[in-house]
Amino acid sequence: MQKLYEYFPDLTKKQYEQIETLCDLYTYWNEKINVISRKDIENIFEHHVLHSMAIAKFFEFKQGSKILDVGTGGGLPGIPLAILFPKVQFTLIDRIAKKITVANNIINELGLTNVTARQQTVEENKEKYDYIVSRAVTAFPDFYKLVKKNVSSIVNNSLCNGIIYIKGGDFYEEMQGFKKYKIFPISAYFTEPFFETKKIIYLPIEPQKVL
């Protein structure tokens, strides 16, 4: 947790406390409902919370932005980002009810008012958002097909609306069908060895033409 102060020196005392509490809550809830590998729960801060917070290093969402977190599990990356951006609205969805139960309990215990979590598939969600975020729930081309309908055509930020996707390993073959994407290594933001193979994929999505 000491790295939190180094990487995010401008957070308020409340935000620091919320992130510290968040790690404790995940440890507590994971004993009841398994949303993170029990072998990895000791690494909750680095492998999951800080990993999610890399998006905030990549881009700072403008006040009033709407973000959809698809396949959120127990609330990652949505809940850490909601702590960092209290004036941005986050919607977290997952098809598995017990995972949303964990996310909602954590949201309530942290007192977050800018984030909602619900059991829902992305196919069922018809709303529009500035950005779709996720932590590698499926191959990127499949993810793109599912969420492109949810990207708003109204641009409110300096960064064009689109997908911000956290992924590790070798995924360059997956991206061959896309032209405008950019890849940002998380190791540029965080120095831990865990992040050496972790990347952020950003894909801007042009407004859909109606025929």
Description:
The chain has a single domain, classed as Rossmann fold (3-Layer(aba) Sandwich), CATH 3.40.50.150. The protein is 33% helix and 18% strand. It has six helices and seven strands. The model has no long low-confidence stretch (mean pLDDT 94).
Note the main attributes of this structure.
211 residues, alpha/beta, Rossmann fold, 33% helix, 18% strand
Any chance you could write out the topology, listing elements then pairs?
Elements: H1 2-7, H2 13-32, H3 44-58, E1 66-70, H4 78-84, E2 89-94, H5 97-110, E3 115-119, E4 131-135, H6 140-147, E5 162-168, E6 182-185, E7 198-204
What's the gist of this structure?
By secondary structure, this protein is of the alpha/beta class.
Question: What is the makeup of the main sheet?
Answer: 7 strands, mixed
Reported by name, the CATH topology is Rossmann fold
Output the CATH class name.
Alpha Beta
Number of domains: 1
The coarse overall form would be globular
Task: Provide the β-strand percentage band.
Answer: 15-25%
Radius of gyration, rounded? Answer: 16 Å
